[in-house]
Amino acid sequence: MSLKFDVVIIGAGPAGLGAAYELAKRGFKVVVLERGKRPGSKNLYGGRIYLTAISKVSPDLCKEMSNLGRRVVRERIMLTHSKTCMSIEIETDEWSGGIVTSLTRFVEWLSQKVEEAGAYIVTSAKVDALHVHGNKTSGVRCGSDNILAEVVIDAEGVNRILLEKSGLVPKLSPGDVAIGVKEVYRVDPKDIEKMFDLEENRGMVLLALGEVLDYFPGGCFMYVDKSHIHVGAVLYLSNYTKFRRTFPEVLDSLYKLPLFRRVVKIGERVEYGARLLPVRPLQRAEMDGLVTVGDAGGFLIHVGPIIRGVDYAFVSGVCAGRAVAEMLEKEKRPSVMTYRSLFSKYVRDTPLMRDIELFRRVYTYYEAHDIYSRYVGFIVDLLREYLEVKNGVKSLNEAMYLSMRKHGLSIWGLAMDYLRRFRKM
Ligand SMILES: Cc1cc2nc3c(=O)[nH]c(=O)nc-3n(C[C@H](O)[C@H](O)[C@H](O)COP(=O)(O)OP(=O)(O)OC[C@H]3O[C@@H](n4cnc5c(N)ncnc54)[C@H](O)[C@@H]3O)c2cc1C
């Protein structure tokens, strides 16, 4: 069977749905093809969505989004070393614009908005190939159906199998991605509020690195949602083989931390899963009739503890949707040059491209093993030497000297690392 649409979108994740919403609102005939049984069933992430960039492109949707989870008012970074945990925490009365929610809940809600706007979402529909002829894409093949369209929007996520199969992007290498493993615990909201000393609808984010993951590059997270707690770890895949742990073993290591253990005690595990996420800026593929958004287009930033995938997937989808709409209104033959200039126009008012440029400049610094081993140990031991009075009170200078000696650091080495790396991070 052959069907014809204005635009066909591959993947009902935040990116594909953002594009579909914009195009459907403007009256275009749009279909979203999703391989999962229902929207949201295949999506997995950590737990926090930053709303600031979304509020710039879709203020109305953003207002509703902010009620989908707990508002983040507190963040804690935990440095773990030698059976000690040092926490740095910030808490603010003023909401920073992030929510903790489940990606499934977010995607289900967004799918409803997209259908109300007039787009079709077809589930259990796995796209098998793109129709590429020379420099142009004219549609997709989905089982025995050919779905033709003026423009194909590829929002298939980080595993860019369709783009790889068409020879438009190279295969992912282990250095391009990290592996994320997580589980979700259902907990009574009252217990959550008591345990974390939180008010109703207020949430928090905890990140831990160092000994908890045997000092491997990466980190663990805990996101405190309305009635769920998301717990997991992200590890750079290039190091994962040396880590020699199965996914359940990685999750077990998190429960070395007492706070993480308490969650298991009071909650019921309702979900678990694993997925890849980019840790390097991925190459974008575009041609006449084909645009890429979200993870598939490299629209994600991963700078240390900050992962901004969902908001930038959505924002890239919205801007692509607007650019494609304007292009189809203006031109008979969609061209990649016109698309690029229109996309730049729509994205200009958002921090997306500037942040991605920053990511391009700094990502390599976060892969270095010694940040998670030597520097985490140095900071924890410095504070321990300073605060513990077992061997007499020490000045800050003495504590620093002792910790530096213990971790093989010198003032010269610290100054060089500051100039070469930390200054840029
Ligand atoms: C462990 C982990 C933690 C993370 N934490 C955070 C976080 O806290 N905050 C944050 O903002 N981001 C986080 N991210 C990143 C975030 O999940 C992604 O950046 C975001 O989901 C990208 O959205 P997307 O729409 O581009 O792709 P996806 O969400 O991956 O959606 C792609 C969709 O395409 C469908 N699809 C794929 N191939 C086909 C096909 N051939 N045919 C039909 N459908 C197809 C899939 O089923 C899926 O529904 C995390 C990621 C991981 C793995």
Overview of the molecule:
The structure is a single chain. The chain is an alpha/beta fold and 425 residues long. It has three domains: 200 residues, FAD/NAD(P)-binding domain (3-Layer(bba) Sandwich), CATH 3.50.50; 104 residues, D-Amino Acid Oxidase, Chain A, domain 2; 55 residues, no CATH class. It has 15 helices and 18 strands. Strands 3, 4, 5, 6, 11, 12, 13, 14 and 15 form a nine-stranded mixed sheet that branches. The longest helix has 21 residues. It is globular, with a radius of gyration of 23 Å. The model has no long low-confidence stretch (mean pLDDT 93). Flavin-adenine dinucleotide (FAD) binds next to helix 1, strand 3, strand 11, strand 14 and strand 15.
What's the quick description here?
By secondary structure, the chain is of the alpha/beta class.
